[in-house]
Every structure is written in C-alpha cells, then in structure tokens.
Amino acid sequence: MVGSLAVLGVVVTVPGLSHFFGSRPLGPVGWTIAVASAAGSVLVPAVAQGAAGVVARTGRSAGRRA
Length: 66
Description:
74% of the residues lie in helices and 0% in strands. The chain has 66 residues and is an all-alpha fold.
C-alpha cells in the first residue's frame, strides 16, 4: 500500500512522467488537499464507527441527558 502510494507520488510529481500519463504535476496546495482528503476519508468513518459503538453500548446518544 505504501509502495504504491510512493510510486503514484513519483508519477504525479515528476513533470515528464506526469505529462506522459496525462496529468499535471501537483504543487504544495494540491498535495495538501490530497493528503487532507485521504486523511479525512480514513478518520471520519473511524470516528463515526466509534461513536456508533458508544451509542450501541449505552443505548442513548451523547447529546441526550437522562
């Protein structure tokens, strides 16, 4: 997984390779957006699953008071 990510990073970053594959090299803003999106796609479901587990164990949502 990490190896394929590294290869993709090289292909997208190197101007000759990226042009060959029909894309433009990413700059710092593009890399920031890509990394933040990837991190969010991993973290948001994990947090949601954890919150769902808490609700399932306690039988009530965190916002409800007894």
